[in-house]
Specification:
With 308 residues, this protein is α/β, with parallel strands linked by helices. Among the domains are: 1-101, Winged helix-like DNA-binding domain superfamily/Winged helix DNA-binding domain (Arc Repressor Mutant, subunit A, Orthogonal Bundle); 181-270, Periplasmic binding protein-like II (D-Maltodextrin-Binding Protein, domain 2, 3-Layer(aba) Sandwich). It has 13 helices and twelve strands.
Length: 308
């Protein structure tokens, strides 16, 4: 509540000289902060990119400070912008919580934001969401599929599905499953492996070396030649399918591709745990609980796909 009052105070003081302050500007600001580009924010809000730009410029004028750095690859909040973003997200959460109190049914509508690795989203979760939308037609989902760590504390998402045991005690955590990994190659490449004791490897790029898969692979195969590096496991699978080398993939990715076969190398990749994390302030919302419970049941029901 203190943060909510603070953002209201900041905005009121900044727009005292304006005859008609428009609080909708904050919604457009948040969309641009969340998506990083005018076009993506416009698609999310179902408006033109010119409208997003105009609304953000209006808020910057009201606050008398630039809120974004315009870069070649998109928009990044300035230091002032990050502060306003944090406070504006608090306003957004408060508005959603107020809407949830209007009626029991209202709590089962609205947006829930999820973040997870791209391969988990594309090759496991999305295919299993049909029943959820039939059960809860009023709930909309935004899925941020990325290997980078999306911050729950900064309210960039409501629910995160992540590999590895969580260390953040400020979040609610639930273990979902384990995920098994193996090495995969095309049939032709796998057949030739007996004659090639040092296969070409396919791995993550330098920006994703923090991922546990990449760390283990670099440590256990320090002399390996990485013929292709990419930030996408889907691209790694496609590269292996093309016969260019060996990729370390989750079973739900490798086993799902009929053109890939498992191969044995000197060491086998370890299993990894998958956890679901929720912010405590949104975990009690009915729509968030509905998504979390559905995901937990889905992982429990189809865990064999992940563990082999």
């Amino acid at each position: 509540m203190d943060r909510l009052c603070e953002i209201v105070y900041i905005c009121v003081m900044a727009v005292q000289k304006r005859s008609d302050p428009d609080w909708e500007d904050l919604r457009y600001f948040l969309a641009l902060a969340r998506h990083g580009s005018l076009s993506a924010a416009a698609r999310a809000l179902k408006v033109s990119h010119a409208t997003v730009a105009r609304r953000v410029a209006s808020l910057e004028a009201a606050l008398q400070a630039p809120l974004f750095d315009r870069k070649a690859d998109g928009y990044a909040p300035t230091a002032r912008g990050r502060r306003v973003e944090q406070l504006a997200r608090t306003m957004e959460d408060a508005a959603r919580a107020s809407a949830d109190l209007t009626s029991p049914d209202a709590g089962l509508s609205g947006l829930v934001r999820l973040t997870m690795a791209r391969s988990m989203a594309e090759r496991f979760v999305v295919d299993r969401l049909g029943d959820f939308h039939r059960q809860h037609p009023g709930i909309d989902l935004e899925i941020i599929a990325d290997s980078r760590v999306i911050s729950l504390s900064r309210r960039e998402a409501d629910i995160a599905i992540r590999f590895g045991r969580p260390k953040d005690s400020d979040l609610l955590a639930r273990r979902l499953s384990s995920v098994a990994f193996s090495f995969y190659a095309s049939r032709g490449y796998a057949k030739a492996l007996g004659k090639n004791p040092s296969p070409a490897m396919i791995g993550f790029d330098d920006d994703n070396e923090f991922i546990a898969d990449a760390t283990w692979l670099n440590r256990e195969f320090p002399q390996a030649r990485f013929i292709i590096r990419t930030n996408s496991q889907s691209t790694q699978a496609a590269t292996a399918r093309a016969g260019l080398g060996v990729a370390q993939l989750p079973l739900h990715v490798g086993n799902d591709d009929p053109r890939l076969v498992p191969v044995k190398l000197a060491k086998n990749p370890p299993d990894r745990e998958v956890w679901m994390l929720l912010r405590k302030d949104v975990a009690r919302l009915p729509r968030v609980r509905a998504v979390a419970d559905y995901l937990a049941a889905m992982f429990r029901r189809d865990r064999r796909v992940l563990t082999g």
